[in-house]
Design brief:
It is built from five helices and five strands, in the order βαβααβαβαβ. By secondary structure, the protein is of the alpha/beta class. A five-stranded parallel sheet has the order 3-2-1-4-5, with helices on both faces. It is 46% helix and 20% strand. It is globular, with a radius of gyration of 16 Å. Helix 4 packs parallel to helix 5.
Length: 147
Amino acid sequence: MRIFTYQMFKRILIPVDGSAGAQRGVEHGLELAEQFDAVVHTIFVVDERRFGHSPAISSDELFLEQVETSGQALMDELANKAQTRGLEVYTCCARGIPFEAILTYAEDNDIDLIVMGLHGRAQREEPKIGSTTERILREADVPVLPV
């Protein structure tokens, strides 16, 4: 009798933004990646709607670089956790509108699953789903697991 194994998820994308919700996404995403021996991808998006857009070197640009440095630190932490579990990991820091950047990354990298927190940095008091998560749930061509 032959037993075939089916790897359901080969590439899992875990967006990070430093929020508690994103951290839940990290933990669940890494558990799934370990279970399926999947490659982990992580992305941090500097929200240009929130932080502005500056094409020239200025104090605004220096601030955006500081935000990117903070995002890279978050992704490095995730990468260390993934590598400790024996997982391959890729990181990406992008600028733009978070849901658009996440969806573009997912499409460009043949992502099989997006795992993310219900709320991110723009969390409100209401127990509703976050706006970025909601847009990704509606528009993604791949499964999305909000945690």
